[in-house]
Every structure is written in C-alpha cells, then in structure tokens.
Amino acid sequence: MQISIAQINPVIGDISYNTNLICETISNNKSNNNKNIKSDHKLIIFPELALSGYPPEDLLYNPTWPEQINQSLKKIQSICNKHKTHALIGHPYWVKDNINNNICINAASLISPNLSPDLSANNNTIKIIAIKTALPNYGVFDEKRYFTSYQDIKNADKICDNTFTINNTKFGVLICEDGWCLNKAKQLKEKNIDLFIQINASPFEINKHKIRHHHALNITKQTSIPLLSIQTIGGQDELIFDGGSFITDKNHNIKILSPYFKTNISDLPLDSLLQKFNNNQNNLSHNLSHNLENIYQAIILGCQDYFRKNNFTGALIGLSGGIDSAITLALATKALGKENVKAILMPSEYTSELSLECALAQIKTLGVSYANISITPIIKELKKSLSDSIKLYPESKNLALQNLQARARGLILMAESNLCGKLVLTTGNKSELAMGYATLYGDMSGAFNLIKDLYKTQVYELSKFINKKFNSQIIPNKVISRAPSAELAPNQTDQDSLPPYDILDKILIEIIENNKSINQLKNMGYNNQTIDLVISKLKFSEYKRKQSPLGIKLSKRSFGKDWRYPIALRI
To answer: Scanning 108, 172, 184, 214, which has the fewest C-beta atoms within 10 Å of its C-beta?
Structure first.
C-alpha cells in the first residue's frame, strides 16, 4: 500500500482554489503511475481544514459555505474515482443539532474511489471519518467560537468513529489538538488500529517543532502505535505554517518526511512507515537546531505569501540608515526580488552623513530602486503653520517637532505607495512597540511588518546571521555596529529614553512570554526602577499597539492575536 503526504499551501476562504489544488495534487501524484500498486491501495492525506484554509474565522458564518464544501467534496470524489485513490481531507462541515440548527464541525473525510462499473450518484464514497474533539481556545486559537466538539454532539459515534480501514490496515484519525491529548489516542487504541494519522494546521513559533514531536512521542510511548503527523504550509496573515510532516515509531524515534517551509508531496510505502528506524535515517536537510535560520525562513515565507495571496505587487520601505529599516529592506528583497522593492530615503537636518552612506551602500548591494526626498522643506512649512501653538505650549515643543518629522515621512511613504502601487512595510521591532517608542501616523504608517515580533537584540542577531548566510554585507556592518538612533534631534540615541536593549529585552521576554510578576522580576535581580519604567511604558503604549500594522508571529506570544489587553484599565 502506498501513502502520500500532501503538505500543501491553501488560501483561506478560496474554496475553489483549494479544491483545484487538492485535485491537481491527486492527479499529479507519482504513485498514480506506479503499476506495482494495486487499485484502491493508494491513500493521499491532506492537512486540517485544507478545503477552507486555517483559520477561517468568521468566514464560517457564510451561509453559502455548506453547499460549496459539499460541491468541492464531490469534485474531489470524481478525481479519486479517476485515479483510483483514497484521499483523507480536513474541512469544515455542518450537521444538525437537537433542535435542527446547523452546527459547524472541524472534520476529516475519507473520499474513496468507486471501483464498480456503476459510477452513479447513488453510490456515494464520501464518509466523515473524524470530528475534532479538543478545540484549542488559547493564544491565537478561538475554535470554540466556531466549532462544536465531537463530545458535545449527540450520537456523534453514529456519524463517525475516527477510524477507517484500507487493505486490512486500520487507521485512527486525530485532528491536530486531539494529538496533544492522550484520551483520544487511548480510546482509538482500543479499536486495534495499526497507525495514527494526525492532520494539522499548527502555526510556527520558535521551537514549536519540539513541542509537536514531544506530544507525538508521548502517544507512541503510551500506546506503542506509530503516529504519522501531516502539517500544512504557508503564511496566513500573521501566522506561519512551517510544514515538517513526520512519523514516530515504536522505538520512540522521529523521522521527518517533508521539508520545513516548503510545499511537498512525499510518497511512501506503508511498510516503511510501520517499520522501526534509527534517528540517523532522518532525511531532513534543514537544520532545525538553528533558530535564526528558522526565523529567517518563516519571515521570507510570511512575506511572500502575504503579498501573493493578497495580490500586492511590491514593497516600499523608508530606509533611514538604521538597523530596523536595513534588515526589513534585506528581508523584503530576498522574499520578493529586487525588482519588486523600492527604498525611500527621507533625510532631515538631523540625518547624519553616516546614515546616508549606509543607506546608499545597502541600496547598491541589493540593487533595488530608490528615491531621495528631503523632509526639511515640509517641516519648515509645518513649523510656520504651527508657530502660534508652539508659542502657546513651549513645554511640548520638542516632542511635537520630533513627531512632525516621523509623520512627514509617513505622509511621503503613503503618497509614494499610492503613486507606485507598492505596499508600505513598517520597521518597528517588538522592543520599540512594547515601550511605545514609535510615532502614530509616522513610522507606524504602513500595512505589514516583517520584524514586529523580533526584539531589538534579535534584530541584531538576525542581521549578522543574514550577512553570514549570504557571505555579504547585505546589512552594512556600520549599521550593525552603530548606536541605534531615531535621529529626530541632535545627538539622539534610543538609550536616552529606554534602558539598554540587552537588559530591556530580557525583562520584556519575562513579562510578555513567561508571564512573570513584578516580585518575580525583582527576585531575578532586575533593578526596581527599571522594572517600574518598563511596566509603566508597556501598559501606557497599548493604545498605540492596537493601531499598529499586522506583523509575522515568531514567538510564543506576539503583539497580535495572542496579546489581548484592554486599553482603558487600572491594575
């Protein structure tokens, strides 16, 4: 028997596209041409919610979707008939509850080929195999808003029992989070299955693959049954799905079957999946131990898919000569190609010669187009217009004039975006967003942020990594070595108003990602005054973060779906 793992990249909401992608994957599958495989002995497995994309969110309320999903399943059935292939596919589905209302389930269906001469519609070979039981409702997940759990559906066991059999091999199906809960696996073990199949839409974060492997190994240790885990791939707004489909064996080893950050179809004989293997059989060329490589690949994939899936033609970046805009320009160029990226230099009276030198050097290295537009005339006119107010509120003059510069640059970037049709990428890092060290309608103007979930120290680390990876000063060394500055005032540096980034970032990680309290931070040895400053700025800046552009999630807690704090609060 041949099993194929379809690590595909669906588009949320485009059921027609996803259906065609699934059909083409089945049609082009190499095992279709293998004459040694008998008809009806081929199984191709697709990820969780492959038909809708993940997460579909409020699109599930679309009243036309139930019929669209039904029609898509029938279209896939005709392809399975043609190629005599079984397909296991994740998709949303609607069933009736006790009072005849439609309820949505996260389902997996087996579509089997009709091998009889009579291919009439009466001979239906589509069968729901599994309904997701464990609905995650934490972090970026809110599945309980949309789906009903298997355990909450009356007579759910009459709809499906989470198993199916092909060629005397019995499979037990787990849908993503079900594979992180032992109860479901132990229930399926009692049904004498030979192999667990877990279909997933598991978003990337640093070291997430280790968590997936841990849960899969736990199931094999507790049940002595191998587990085949199929992952999805691609960028979906702020979420990245990184692939890396794998199998565990009875020896508690893991074998990676599909690459990370790439679509892939892997064809494997069932016997090779069920046999024991050694860890040195791992065919993964990608070095998972290197977090900077993972971060780089995740950002590249997220950038490419955000532009491709939204039909944006290119990126526009305000290039200052500082580290954040430099790394953003480098990443965007690697993701989209130099012909699709444009840099805008917007010097002021405070812009140093070093900044201009670094910016122009990087533009030359990357080969991107650029424009040089001074903001000095704009600021001069704005000062004239605001002269009466400046006299009236002299104590606010410095901050107002600094923000005028940032907002003038935001104005130019958005005008350029309208003119050339490219999307503005903002360049604020996680440390700055945490502290509110950014200007609304200024450097926060734009649509997407590649480094939103990178702390400042990580920005420096990734910059050095990129230069080493490509053996070139893609990010000029002078940019990496200079003191960070917004250059909105004479001799200004970030550390004039913020703690040193190496200290700030450690405190922020403990607060944001490890949920540490003030007392715990003090017990860890951090300065009381620094802790109070960081927490005060973090709270106060929430109103800014709510207005910041979407950015790629890389950590276990980013300023996005998994950060939900009210603005008006007292704690």
So the answer is: 214
